[in-house]
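Sequence and structure are kept together here, with a separate record for every protein. An example record follows, reproduced without changes.
>
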Amino acid sequence: MNVLVFDIETVPDIETGRSLHDLGDLEDKGVAQAMFAKRREQTGGSEFLALHLHRIVAISAVLRNSDNFKVWSLGSAGSNEKEIITRFFDGIERYTPTLVSWNGGGFDLPVLHYRSLLHGVAAPRYWELGDDDRDFRWNNYLNRFHFRHTDLMDVLAGYQLRAAAPLNDIATMLGFPGKMGMNGAAVWERYLKGEVNAIRNYCEIDVLNTYLIFLRWELLRGNLDASRWERECEIMREHLRQANKTHLDEFLERWPN
């Protein structure tokens, strides 16, 4: 097993919004409000920005391989966007993992594409389609129906948008902790308050829930049996206990044995 579960958290790309809407030296919060208003006009009500107008402020991950289980957020709270994106793609270069996400194909990866384009972050392994490695011709990160990137929301919905479900709903249904302390809509306000560590912790909770759903899906597919499922859960619990971090302790408290 060589799995990297990931999730990103974003805020409005203020600089692009300022340029697109000719907002001059308007304060950042005002620029964001203008971007949200413009989006409401375009969509008839939703403020959720087009994907190219998101800026990444956190990437969190679970790495599980034969030797290790680890949950963490890339870089530090002070790392800039280019650094954390570079770290993400460097991990793919190093491990060639199976990427696992919840709606990663519909959100996280397209945002990463646009932001990598902006910063000039090279990711040859990620973009490999079989020209240099024939194995990637039949299983690569970009094809929706390949499992080198497994978007669990998409797969479990049978690739039907009408069947897609929120991460929190499925995690709760399965008896996992679900989201804790924040939701995606609150990230911008918390960011304005300088609470980047809280955002990173929230993102880590999302990847833990996603990883548990992935393990349950592996059980469903027959790649794990019941005893291996229990063993993988215990490995995860032991790591979280040893981490001695408040948000991970709370996750454990909400996750019944």
Q: What stands out?
A: Residues 48 and 228 are 40 Å apart (CA to CA).
